[in-house]
């Protein structure tokens, strides 16, 4: 998942409420109340970045004591800059209006980096208390910009004036994006409606933050401890990490399953303890749905009702129609058409997978029904029987450092990038686990930027994997380099032992690196053009997953963590033969979430009950009972802890179609996945332009036509 936030006023609120990435050296900092400490901390948070590589975040110096005051000052500074632009007596031009807005807000942009780290990578109860108070302030600030009539009139003048015709294509797109962003977020409303719009944003800011905090609380509060006698089936690498997790939680001699996907999924895959599997499954899939102080059902109802009311102020029938108007899909109906085309194939495949599992479950354990907490376990049994493929055996060849070097190799071949670790302490980091590499162009030695890696799970770090940028490429005020970051939740090897991960996790590792390559490849002029539309920006990263299975990567980097021997040919053959194994489960759990998301936002939510709505929607879709949504509604942070993926979770599948179609271009090329001509077109048309070109036009420039859904169905083995 990519997070890359620039100060585009119309998008500012949703960006900060989703979270980004930023900084610190400890997740439990003492809150100091002395005014001098607050002033000093505030000044450090707002200070320009110093040091090498055009300046880097001062992760070793900042703390959140002055965060609230820093936001007050940064917002005030930005509002003053905006007001100067709005009240400029000179006629509105592209330079004194649109470009001036691009230049504004630098202290606030830097502050978001730190805030995002504390929110996503280094959270604590103290920080979450501070963040609760920030939401309404940020909402009010965003509304002051979005509803500044004088500013919008100047933007409108540039967009509708004669000068627009003389601008180059990139400048025209920036102007359109700026104008459309303001119109999209209420700039054309009457004064009365503007006030209600702003009030709704205030309420939503609180609810989004509360939703996210509730999920994190359930992730921290629910842990399953088990004894030596209950370790059956679990690999030693998992047990070592689970032992350490238990010790950290005051249970030495025990083992702990934490309430995160990286801990839950392997336990459900390998543990022979069915009762424990059920408990772990319930803990994970009931996050935010336990009927206690952290229950999110009421928050969901309020969020949906407020979103619906807000878009009705703008004249839209529902939230989904408003959200998709500037996406590749354009309408919710188009998005639904894609999903409902794939859905029957996915659930049919689930039926086949369950039939295979049921035979083994009856034979091995006398079970007559596969429950959701059984799916991963018996699926793994089927995998071993059908393909003689043991996931734990595969992990022995998936060592984290080797995979990182494989990603660097791919980046060198396709993107002309070279990576050299910065280990002299000149670049501060927010945690000892974080490492940094300088990125240069292999052909010229030119500095491209830095790449930060925060790979391991820990308390206070939200689950999942994501990418973010602390600074993006621009040239309009002199060329800036890129500070990009990847963040994961791998279970760290104990006592210096190598970290071994699953094949799925290896794909995710490549996926998130694709987001970083997208940022590092940028060749745009203005900050706002480093953004993108949600049903397109996942495409580039999903495409990069394909290079994990190339011969060059397998032969040189997928080596046994002890012996250094390459992965045997027979094991490689098994992996490729099993490439579409469990595709029913993967596609269905994802599509269920995407369909429920879209249905939530196409419905009048008056009196809605989230749990009931989820159940009824999935029942109508004939959802198989042996599995659930990938993200159940009460912990579906993509759509309820912010608005970045709301009515847009379908975007992963839209991007999947692009991915499958683009992969065919490489497969059909003389040089395969390392074909120089196709790679050049890939970087030129699909990575470097970011959002400076309409995504549909960019894809056609690369492929010569639109993408075709049949490529996806073939890729997943649903059709021949």
TrEMBL record:
UniProt GO BP: proteolysis
Cofactor: Zn(2+)
GO CC annotation: cytosol
PROSITE patterns documented for this protein: PROKAR_LIPOPROTEIN (PS51257)
Molecular function terms from GO: carboxypeptidase activity; metal ion binding; metalloendopeptidase activity
Keywords (A to Z) from UniProt: Hydrolase, Metal-binding, Metalloprotease, Protease, Signal, Zinc
SUPFAM superfamilies, A to Z: Metalloproteases ('zincins'), catalytic domain (SSF55486)
The record's free-text note on cofactor binding: Binds 1 zinc ion.
Domain Peptidase M3A/M3B catalytic: 267-716
Signal peptide: 1-23
Family the entry assigns: Belongs to the peptidase M3 family.
Protein name: Peptidyl-dipeptidase Dcp Metallo peptidase. MEROPS family M03A
Species name: Thalassotalea agarivorans
